[in-house]
Amino acid sequence: MDALGARPKGVALTDKQRIAWLRLIRSDNVGPATFRDLINHFGSAEAALAMLPELSARGGATRSIRIASEAEAHRELEAVQRFGARFVGIGEPDYPQALRQIDGAPPLLTVKGNLSVLNRPAVGIVGSRNASISGSKFAAMIARDCGRAGYAVVSGLARGIDTAAHRASLDTGTIAAMAGGLDQPYPPENVGLLEAIWNGNGLAVSEMPFGWEPRARDFPRRNRLIAGISLGVAVVEAAVRSGSLITARMAGEFGRLVFAVPGSPLDPRCHGTNGLLKEGATIVTSPEDVVEALTPLSQPDLFSRSSAEEPKREDSRMSLPPDETDRSLVIDALGPTPVEVDDIIRHTGLSASAVYLVLLELDMAGRLHRHAGGLISISMLD
Question: Judging by DSSP bridges, how do beta strands 86-89 and 108-113 pair with one another?
């Protein structure tokens, strides 16, 4: 256990459970939040898989839902193992404790490298791909000092600031969050850096399927990983519209500290960071500013609650499906405007379990839309 880290907690998945989890998260219309709700309602991934066709049909699906097969799950698991990587489930000891607390935390992570890095408190360092020399140097200073203070440094393996942060923390421990599968690094010129990370005192992590080639829409999920794993995120040079600001926004939503390094008003690369300072981000003019602010958050057991763990025994939590009257009440309460689930429960007067079951039906039918902050909306049928 690291001096600043908390002792890993959780229960390891069995081989059977791991395959069922992999099948469930790889099936149609099952994202992280839906996965959690399915596990919570049905008690296990195996039981949830059996219910997917019925849920989809009751939710008004116009076609059969695709469910990942055992053969597909075994193939991906074997490919990951051949690559020297492994899967870590959200309730297992090696899953990052800070990440498991965010809404919609990935149920399964693919990881390669030094797993002990995941059990240390972490700080994210992100910024411009087209970084200045001074920006890269300062990012490296923050990474080096945070590493020496016992923190893992998390970044996105991009050019510029990310590269500087990773390189400066290779010896102390760095985590590369990836937008594609672990075997699909981006950009290509950082393949050597990635290999140095997972062959040394670092680790690569992804929530995407093995073999997945990253697309533009996948990078916000990588940014979410950086923000979720970290206690705070430091932004060094960022344009007004950039992935770094997305990471900072997510960090704020997760209750993490947001740090920003001030820059020249004449440099477009600093417009985003200066904007963060106007919005209340913590100003950083030395690495000590980051270390001192993170210290009170680095207590053992700060993030001790587990979530989405499978029960030790296969018990069924299935309840009777809602009747058409109850289903109509929930659907009528929904619309294109995002609302909170608690508001639906109050509005309909139905039990929470009945409302969540109808929402799962709509989710499996591809009609439910999930938004930031746990809000939901519905696609109306023609």
Answer: antiparallel
Neighbours of 213 (CB within 10 A): 12
Question: Which CATH number is associated with domain 120-297?
Answer: 3.40.50.450
Fold of the 324-378 domain: Arc Repressor Mutant, subunit A (1.10.10)
* Residue pLDDT, tens place only, 286-307: 999 999 999 988 765 555 544 4
Quote the pLDDT of residue 67.
97
pLDDT, position 10:
78
Tens digits of per-residue pLDDT, 61-97? 888 999 999 999 999 999 999 999 999 999 899 999 9
The C-alpha atoms of residue 327 and residue 321 are separated, in whole angstroms, by 9
- What is the sign of the dihedral through the CA atoms of 226, 231, 234 and 238? positive
State the pLDDT at residue 305: 47
| pLDDT at residue 379, rounded to an integer | 74
Ranges of residues in the chain with a pLDDT under 70 are: 1-8, 299-320, 380-382
Residue ranges per structural domain of the chain: 15-110, 120-297, 324-378
The answer to whether 368 touches 337, Cβ cutoff 8 Å, is no
Q: What is the pLDDT of residue 241?
A: 87
Give 78's contacts (C-beta < 8 A, 6+ positions apart). none
3-state secondary structure the chain: CCCCCCCCCCCCCCHHHHHHHHHHHCCCCCCHHHHHHHHHHHCCHHHHHHHHHHHHHHCCCCCCCCCCCHHHHHHHHHHHHHCCCEEEECCCCCCCCCHHHCCCCCCEEEEEECHHHHHCCEEEEEECCCCCHHHHHHHHHHHHHHHHCCCEEEECCCCCHHHHHHHHCCCCCEEEECCCCCCCCCCHHHHHHHHHHHCCCEEEEECCCCCCCCCHHHHHHHHHHHHHHCCEEEEECCCCCCHHHHHHHHHHHCCCEEEECCCCCCCHHHHHHHHHHHCCCEECCCHHHHHHHHHHHCCCCCCCCCCCCCCCCCCCCCCCCCCHHHHHHHHHHCCCCCECHHHHHHHHCCCHHHHHHHHHHHHHCCCEEECHHHCEEECCCC
